[in-house]
Design goal:
The chain is 11% helix and 40% strand. With 351 residues, it is mainly β. It folds into 2 domains: 246 residues, Thrombin, subunit H; 98 residues, Roll (Pdz3 Domain). It has a 6-stranded antiparallel beta barrel with strand order 1-2-3-6-5-4.
């Protein structure tokens, strides 16, 4: 599937969290049941997340877990990646909140949201994380993006599992230390709780998407990040401690869609072929790149004199900056001429 087809598919699957476990599709629908709510039962503190993907003309949905009564919500990073607007709904109450991104860890697939003007919310009951192969577990989430919570029962099939996730730009992340389970996850479950037999959260459901797929997983199995791991990263985010993997606050953007450069597609202005860099495949109207004169087909080769070897290499360079920062971008135009321009970064969607 091409990038364009994936974007169109994502827009068409408007309510599907863009998160579907390999093999965990329609065949498992009959195994889903409505979870109990209140009184410490399954589903307590679990919310539905709805996002608008404004730069892709689409939408998506997923699940989250309330960590504090004032509205801190834990979810998977790729539930909110690319979101230009986030709404969080408390199922069965009619209450909803706009949400901002406190921070995220793309490599470990963890994000924290803050609900606006929230108070008195129920929080999820956290377990001690003690699990063994064969233990019974229940996955809860917004399966199918319907806005209602359902659950699927299963068992722990492995601990300390490793999978490789790959995005549509070719960048890869390895997720390690995961809980593998036979619980039948579906699109929309990601970010929701994996609960033990006593209804305590022991993991955060994680899955693959149209733009974020697993290249090494067992057919039909689901995966969850151990809750201890997810909470450790969440605390780092809420403490405001940025790192090479943890991003805090708004995300800077230059306003381009990019892809790796095809080999030999550009010259360096002196007749020598070059293929390193990130090719601009689209420009955000009114964004910083357009204002600086960049166009589709241009090849970005450096930012602040730091070489850009590929599309996936450009993203963390920009991500290390804040909206409002001024940077220099070196690029090669379609005629082979090299230019350097100054760009003031705008605020964009989380990555």
């Amino acid at each position: 599937m091409t990038i364009t087809e994936r974007i169109h598919a994502r827009a068409a699957l408007i309510a599907l969290a863009v998160l579907a476990v390999i093999g965990g599709g329609v065949a498992y629908a009959a195994t889903r049941t409505r979870p109990a709510t209140g009184g410490g039962g399954a589903g307590t503190g679990v919310v539905v997340i709805e996002t608008s993907l404004g730069l892709q003309d689409g939408a998506a949905a997923g699940t989250g877990m309330v960590l504090t009564s004032s509205g801190e919500v834990l979810t998977n990073n790729h539930v909110i990646a690319g979101a230009t607007k986030i709404r969080v709904v408390l199922p069965g109450t009619g209450r909803s909140y706009s949400a901002s991104v406190v921070g995220y860890d793309k490599s470990d697939d963890v994000a924290v949201l803050q609900l606006k003007d929230a108070s008195g919310l129920r929080t999820v009951p956290i377990g001690n994380g003690s699990l063994a192969v064969g233990d019974q577990v229940t996955a809860i989430g917004n399966a199918g993006g319907t806005g209602s919570l359902t659950s699927a029962r299963g068992a722990v099939t492995a601990l300390d599992a490793t999978i490789t996730a790959q995005d549509e730009n070719g960048g890869g992340e390895q997720l390690t230390g995961l809980i593998e389970t036979s619980a039948a996850l579906q699109p929309g479950d990601s970010g929701g709780p994996l609960e033990d037999s006593r209804g305590r959260v022991v993991g955060m459901d994680t899955a693959a998407s149209t733009g974020f797929s697993f290249t090494s997983s067992t057919q039909g199995d689901g995966y969850a990040i151990p809750i201890g791991t997810a909470l450790r990263i969440a605390r780092q985010i809420t403490d405001g401690t940025a790192s090479s993997t943890v991003h805090i606050g708004p995300t800077a953007m230059i306003g381009v869609q990019i892809a790796d450069s095809p080999s030999g597609a550009f010259g360096d202005g002196f007749g020598a072929a070059t293929s390193d860099g990130a090719t601009i495949t689209g420009i955000v109207p009114g964004g910083p790149a357009e204002a600086a004169g960049l166009s589709s087909g241009d090849l970005i080769t450096a930012v602040d004199r730091q070489a850009v070897s590929s599309a996936s290499a450009l993203q963390p360079i920009i991500g290390a900056h804040k909206p409002g920062d001024r940077i220099s971008i070196t690029y090669v135009d379609t005629g082979g001429q090299t230019h350097t321009v100054d760009v003031t970064l705008a605020s964009g969607p989380p990555q």
